[in-house]
Specification:
CATH topology: Maf protein
Helix content: 25-40%
InterPro entries: ITPase-like_fam, Maf-like
Radius of gyration: 17 Å
Largest sheet: 7 strands, mixed
Main location: cytoplasm
Number of strands: 7
Number of helices: 6
CATH architecture: Alpha-Beta Complex
EC number: 3.6.1.-
Strand content: 25-35%
Subcellular location: Cytoplasm
Order of helices and strands: EHEHEEHEEHEHH
GO molecular function, one term: nucleoside triphosphate diphosphatase activity
Distance between the termini: 9 Å
């Protein structure tokens, strides 16, 4: 990294998002933002994840004024209902049962906040996952093996979660892991950061 290149900060301590940035060859540090993630009344999924991604990045700007701050948030929509991380076996079981045989849309918000200029580039990427018809035994077996209780949608697509799917559709499969990496790299290039140079 050159002396004049901006520092990167991931506004998250997610091991999944960290792994994606590592995969892209980026040098970064992490900080955990404290924000209220309660959805607004009648807030649409794309609006919610963009607002939360922006909030996560901008709240850290005062502490990291010389950084480009990466904020991200994700929800999935099952039967027109916004769903987040399950946190428990029972919630995950009900999420996967509700998703069985259906197409579920994941909304991932991304915000790149420039602490120096106090401006942000914010967007939302969607990704569709069509689940095959799952038996209760398959759901239980999957949850006991992978325990994806900290993942929106109750699965880890980079692990055994792939066994739950019939098909995937979207621009960037990294979006499912919680960070639209292709879009982020494009935003970073606009800020003068390119891991290839």
């Amino acid at each position: 990294m050159s002396a004049h290149q901006k520092k990167l900060l991931l506004a998250s301590t997610s091991v999944y998002r960290k792994a994606l940035l590592d995969k892209a060859g980026l040098v970064f540090s992490c900080a955990s933002p404290a924000i209220d993630e309660t959805p607004g009344r009648d807030e649409k999924p794309a609006e919610l994840v963009q607002r939360l991604a922006y909030s996560k990045a901008s709240v850290l700007a005062a502490l990291y004024p010389e950084h480009l701050i990466i904020g991200s948030d994700q929800v999935c929509v099952i039967d027109r209902k916004i769903t987040g991380k399950p946190h428990t076996f029972d919630n995950a079981f009900h999420q996967l049962r509700a998703a069985s045989g259906k197409t579920v849309t994941f909304y991932t918000g991304l915000s790149l906040y420039n602490g120096e200029t106090q401006t942000a580039q914010t967007l939302c990427e969607t990704f569709d996952v069509t689940f095959r018809s799952l038996t209760d035994e398959e759901i239980t077996g999957y949850l006991h093996r992978e325990q994806p209780y900290d993942c929106a949608g109750s699965f880890k697509c980079e692990g055994l979660g792939i066994t739950l799917f019939d098909s995937l559709a979207g621009r960037d499969p990294n979006t499912l892991i919680g960070l639209p990496l292709i879009a982020l790299l494009a935003l970073l290039r606009q800020e003068g950061i390119n891991p290839l140079l």
